[in-house]
Amino acid sequence: MRKSIATVSLSGSLSEKLGAAATAGFDGVEIFENDLIASPLSPEEIRTRAADLGLTIDLYQPFRDAEAVPEEILAGNLRRAERKFALMERLGADLLLVCSSVSPDAVDDDALAAEQLHRLASLASEHGIRLAYEALAWGRHVHTYDHAWRIVEAADHPALGVCLDSFHILSRGSDPRGIEEIPGEKIFFLQLADAPRIAMDVLQWSRHYRCFPGQGDFDLAGLVGHTVRAGYTGPLSLEVFNDVFRQGDAGRTAVDALRSLLTLEESAGLSAPPAPVAATGFAFAELVTADTEPLRALLRTLGFARTGRHATKPVDLWEQGEARILLSGAGAGRRDGAALAALGLETPAQDAAVRRAEALLAPVVPRRRAERDAPLDAVAAPDGTELFFCGTAADGTTGGATGGTAGWRGDFPAVPGPGDTGITGTGEPTGLTRIDHVALPQPWHQFDEASLFYRSVLGLEPDESLDLADPFGLVRSRAVSNADGSLRIALNVAPGPGERSARPQHIALATDDIVATARRLRERGAGLLRVPGNYYDDLEARYTWAPGRLAALREYGILYDRDADGEFHHCYTATVGRVFFEIVQRTGGYRGYGARNAPVRLAVQHAAGRG
User: Fold this and answer.
1) Is the pLDDT score of 404 beyond 60?
2) Beta strands in 398-515 (DSSP E)
3) Cα→Cα distances 71→77, 130, 317, Å
4) Structure confidence at residue 336 (pLDDT)
5) 419 band by pLDDT with thresholds 50, 70 and 90
6) What residues contact residue 390 under an 8 Å CB cut-off, 6+ apart?
7) 3-state class of 115 per DSSP?
8) Angle at the Cα of 448 from the Cα atoms of 447 and 451, rounded to 5 degrees
9) pTM, to two decimals
C-alpha cells in the first residue's frame, strides 16, 4: 500500500519536512495547515516542490467546527471553506480533513450535522474536492467513528466520506471490528498513530504522546486489517503529534516512521519482507578504548584469558566459558573513555538477516576488510552500536561468519602462552559462563526508535516499559529479547539531550554460583560495589532465608530478586570509562533483570562518582 506522513509528525520547515519524507521513501504527505501558513513558499511552489520530490499531496488538514451549528455560523463556515477549497486547488490537493466539532456553538443534532455536511460537500465537489469526516476522541457531540459514519451515511453525498484515525478509535476503547460494516469506498482516508497506555486527559494524550506504530500499546495491525477487509485502498498515513519527534532530526524521524509502517504492513499480513532471523545468543561484545590497560586488568580479575589477537587490527579476544569480549585499542580521541561499541549476534542465516535489515531500512556499516578477514556484515543500531551477524556453533563456525571453517574467530590467531614471549592475559576462571545480557543507554529522543528497531529488524520481543527510580530522576527502561532469553538487550533512556555519555553501558555475565564467583573476585581484588546494610535489613524482613544465605549476599554485595518463576542474584564491578560488568545468576524461569534493585544500584554508583 502507498505510504504517507503528516507534516506535523516531523520537525523543521515545510520544505525540510517534504525533503525528509521523500528521502526516507514515502509516497505522499498530509499537509498540516500551520506548516503551510508558516511557509514562505506559495501553494503553487509547494505543489511543485512536492512533485519534484516524487510526493503526492494526499490530504490537507484540518477544517474545524464545521457542522451542527446555527445558520449564521454555518454561513461563515461556508465562506471559510470556499477560501480553503481555492487554496487546495492551487496546492493540488483534493481531499480535506473535516474534524468533528468541539465548538460550544455546536448542537447535538445528527440530522442537522448531516444536512450541513451535505451542503459543505456540495460546495467542495464544485472544486473537485472531497471531504473526509473524522470523529475526534474529544469531539463535543461526535467522538466515535461509528457515530461519524452514521452522519456521513445520512448526508448521502458522493464527495463525503469518513477518515478513520487509529488514535481516536483506540484511545476511547472503541471496537474496530465495526469498521468492516463501512463500505470501503466511503473510507476516504486512514490515519495511524500508536500510543502508550496512559491514564490522562485524551486531548493531552493525543497532542503529546502519540508515537509510530509498534512503539506503543495499540493493536494497529488489527485495526488496519479491519479497514482493508472493508475495502479501503488508500494510503497508510501517519499522523503523530509527539514532542520528541518535533525536536529531533526530520530525516532520521522520517526513516523511523517508514520503518514502522513497513513493520505494520507485515504484522497485518499486507506484505512479506524477508522474515526475521532469530539470533541465538551473543557471539561477542566489543569494547573500544584508547587505553586498554584498565580493561585488561579488569578482565584478568574477572577470570578471562586473552586467547587471540586480530591479524590486522589492534583488537584482542578474551574468553571465559562461552563469554567472549573483544578489546580494541582503536579508541584514540574518544572523550568518553572505554565504551561498548559493537555486538556480535549468533545468527544461523547471516545473509537472510542482512536482507531483513536492509528491507527495514537499517543502515549497513561500511567496513575496511583485509583479504583474509571473515566477511562479517553489520548494521548500525539507532545509538550507533554496530551489530554483527555471526554464525553459530551449530553451523560449524563456532560463532563465526560464513566463508571459513573458523568464521570470525579465524581472524584471531592464538597469542603466545604464559611461558612464551609476548603479552598474555591468562587467569584462573571464576565461574563465568556466557553473556547474559547487555544494557545500552539511549539518547532521550531515540528510545522509542531503538525499541522499534530491535523488534522489527532483529525480531526481538519487547518487554513492558519500566520507570526506574534514580537519585536524580527516573530512568525509563525497556528490554528486548528472543524467545528463549539467550539474547537479551536492555535499553535505558539517557538523562537528556546530548548526554548519552552520562550514563554507562554494561555487560552482564552469567554464573551458576554467584557466591562462589563473588568470593573468587574478592580474593583477586575486584572492586565489587558495596551495597548499604539497609538493603539487606529490608531483604531479611521481606523473605525467609536459609541459615547463612543472607549473610553471604551481604558480605559480597549481592542483590536479590524473585518472582513466581524463579530467583535472580546479581552484583556489579566498578565502572571503567563508560563500562561496568554485572555478574548474574538466574534460577528457575526468572526472565527479568532485577528492576526492583535498580534504585539501590544507581544510588551506589552515584555515590561512587559514576551512575
Assistant:
1) no
2) 432-442, 461-462, 466-470, 473-481, 488-493, 505-511
3) 10, 22, 80
4) 61
5) very low
6) 283, 284, 344, 345, 346, 347, 350, 376, 397, 399, 400, 401, 407, 408
7) helix
8) 90
9) 0.90
Secondary structure class of 606 (helix, strand, coil)? helix
Quote the cell numbers at residue 472: 536524580
Phi, psi values for residue 116, rounded to 5°: -75, -35
pLDDT tens, residue by residue, 472-508: 778 889 999 999 999 999 999 865 544 444 578 999 9
pLDDT for the residue numbered 586: 98
Residue 452 has pLDDT above 90, yes or no: yes
Nearest CA to 102 out of 241, 207, 203, 242 is that of 203
pLDDT at position 561 over 70: yes
Residue closest to 68 by CA, chosen among 4, 142, 1, 11 = 142
438 Cα distance to chain centroid:
16
Measured CA angle at 212 (ends 281, 248), to 5 deg: 95
| Residue 569 CB neighbours (<10 A) | 25
**The C-alpha cell that represents 145 in the structure block:** 467513528
Q: Which helix (H) or strand (E) holds 20?
A: helix 14-24
User: Cell numbers at residue 481, please?
Assistant: 529479547
Q: Where are the alpha helices (DSSP H) in 290-379?
A: 293-302, 350-359
Distance, in Å, from the CA atom of 503 to the CA atom of 414, rounded to the nearest integer, reads: 35
Vertex 303 angle, CA 524 and 290, to 5°: 95
CA angle at 211 for the pair 381 and 258, rounded to the nearest 5°: 55
Rg value, the chain, Cα: 29
What does DSSP assign to residue 575? P
DSSP three-state, residue 51: helix
* Residue 581 neighbours by CB under 8 Å, 6+ apart: 298, 302, 506, 507, 508, 509, 572, 573
Report the C-alpha gap between 127 and 331 in whole angstroms. Answer: 63
Centroid of chain to Cα 33:
29
What whole-number distance in Å separates Cα of residue 447 and Cα of residue 449? 5
Q: What is the DSSP letter of 194?
A: B
32 φ, ψ (degrees, to nearest 5): -85, 135
Burial label for 202, CB within 10 Å (0-12, 13-18, 19+), is middle
Rounded distance between C-alpha atoms, residue 488 and residue 438, angstroms: 7
Q: Can you read off the three cell numbers belonging to residue 471?
A: 537519585
Which residues make beta-bridge pairs with 488?
A: 481
Q: What does the alpha-carbon distance between residue 433 and residue 602 come to, in Å, rounded to a whole number?
A: 26
Q: For residues 212 and 241, is the Cβ–Cβ distance under 8 A? A: no
| Eight-state DSSP code of residue 531 | P
- What gap in Å lies between CA 106 and CA 70, rounded to an integer? 8
**Cα separation, 54 vs 22, whole angstroms:** 7
Nearest to 253 by CA among 540, 23, 67: 23
**Sequence-distant (≥ 6) Cβ neighbours of residue 255 within 8 angstroms:** 24, 361
Q: Are strands 461-462 and 473-481 parallel, antiparallel or unpaired?
A: antiparallel
Residues in the chain: 611
